[in-house]
Amino acid sequence: MFDVWHYDGETARLYIAQVRPLERGFQLVVDGVAGETIAWDRLDPRGKRNGAAVFGLKDVPGWQIGFDGGVPAELAHHLPKPLKYGRGIDRFGIVPALAVFAAISASVVALVLRLPDWIAPNIPISFEKRLGEAMLGDLSKNFCRGNEGEAALAALVRRVDPQGDITDVHVVRFPAINAITLPGGTILIFDGLLRSAASPDEVAGVLGHEIGHVHNRDVMHALVRQAGLSVILGGLSGNIGGNMESLLSASFSREAETAADGHSITAMARANIDPRDTAAFFKRLSRGSEGRGLSVAFLASHPAPRERAERFQKSAAKTVGYAPALTQEQWDALADLCHNDPNQGRRPPFGF
Amino acid sequence: MAAEPDESSFRYTGTFGEFLGVAIGNIVLTLATLGIYRFWATARERRLLWSRSQFIDDGLEWTGTGRELFFGFLIALFVFVFPLTLLYLVLQGLVMRDQPVLAGALIVAITILLTFLRGFANFRGLRYRLTRTWWHGINGGGEGSALRYGGETLLRNLASWLTLGAMLPWVNTRLWRSRWQRMFFGNAAFASSPRWKELIGFYMLMYVMPVLIIGVPAFLISRTVIGGGRISFYDPDNVMVAILATGLILVFSIVWSIIAIAYYARYAAEVVGSMRLEGLAFEFTATTANWLWLIVSNFVLVSAAYLLAIIPLAMIGALSSLRTGFNLLSILNHPSVLITLLLTLAIPVGLAGAIARYRRWRFYIRHLEAGGEIDIASLTRRDSARMRQGEGLLDALDMGAI
Question: Which residue in A132, A310, B72, B143 has the fewest CB atoms around it within 10 Å?
């Protein structure tokens, strides 16, 4: 007989009782009266409380016995061990379980990171185009219009992309020195870029880069990757998951940007356009971004402008003999496209 | 059984060391499973905290499981997070398409829905915690409709919005009463009727403060800068005014925060102090200084952990921008290296969060008191359907703290 304290789950009364071990189970003796036989495997270990080893019954909520000072040695082999981390983990041990979890997590992350390469090429272009239109929304009202400027833009596109895959390129009234590619292959060149560019060759370099994104379907890759990462990293609470997601996305984005630069360099060489103007453009950008102290490069979505400038510079195969991307008249018309647009007074949409 | 008047009826009997052991295991497993273990981690942490929290002669027992929390989370994800995400996408679309009226209407609708869900989740979460909390072989519970409580939360908050938040003490005390009136422990019912009139005076002080915070510096600036007809910040006079205004805003913000904490200390003392469970009366003894210390020290702790995580990242950034021969960036471009690094850095942050939770729990237990008598023999179990799912909604709304 072993002394225990006991709650029956019916009232809050504390009983002093005894456990009488039998062949397959035990009897609980309360106030000298022995109860029914309880099989050992009905006991549910509840850990320690106030120095007592506590057990409940799996099928009777509230029922408890506690061995003050721990489980008696004679009963130890009958009584189940308390759970530490969880049923599955305790069975294998913490170290093997950790190794298995880490391996599974690593495979899941690796799979999700590869997923875009399998999924993105199979997404129908029509769907991608609709997505692009949805993202574009009202912004199309801010396209700059004008016959000569648009003709010059079309000529520039033909020059960089002679196969004619790219049809949807627009200039948007927006002061950023940038260009973006939307899902579905629409390329938007911001007016700020045209204003700051010194020559059509610079714009050709940026355009070639964006066309590279369209050819590689980078936008779709990035969207699929982001969706996948947000699902698997969503489990990590709050900031940790979000920060990991953006750092990983940034790393893949730098890779895609480097590839798009490569596409631009090839296209310019084929079209016999001088890449050194684009190099000068990136050099100007890098001058703007330096002097801000430490640039944390692995947080950036793009490679460092200085490296990009060097790459374009080195790709120049000759010093003379390049043909300008546009004639002077065409370039003037393109650079002033927004300025000459009669609709230019329209206010920018929400938030821009 | 009587609660001794000279010694606290609630005591914490555990040690920090044993908690730290549990917390470290939890964090490592949570990171290794990309967060899935966190439900089991929560259950494990609570099992420890509850069992070390002594009421009169025995510790509490937490019987909630990680599996319950996990399924609760899944339910919340489908009925709550996905639809809301969809609504936010629609909202974005409306904004992009220049539809301010429709977008505004949708914002109102989302706010109403969120307020309702907050009430719903509060009720469900409280009931869930009570049903999983046992003492002397008896557990707590609640009855009544969480939907109805969600509706009440919405209506009372509407009243508060219409008065620009001036009625908040009324809203919160009435909701507290209505929530706890439906809860019980065994066959004993909770009762609580906190008095909002006790709080409203102090609340008004807090309510009027922002007018001073924004109004006084704004007045000073308008007098000097605009009144003088010059808006040049190179003028030494204006620089002085700007410094003065910034200083005033800072001082007022700190004073306001302290007043807000003082209000909250009064609120906590009032709502807990009005609680009864048959012959037991509860009390919450934390003073404003106690709360201030808890909040500030936990904030410093968590901030320090973030700094600890950021320093190695910043050093790598510094090295890579110094263009040393050894290119660290190329290693970081490898996803597995990046992930391992980030997970390692996440450990101090996770640990600080766990310690902050531990300190908060000990704070609650230290300041919670109960007086009067409870008749153990007549405290019996009460039949009520056990809730199956966990506090998923509560979890998703990030109201994990009691």
Answer: B143
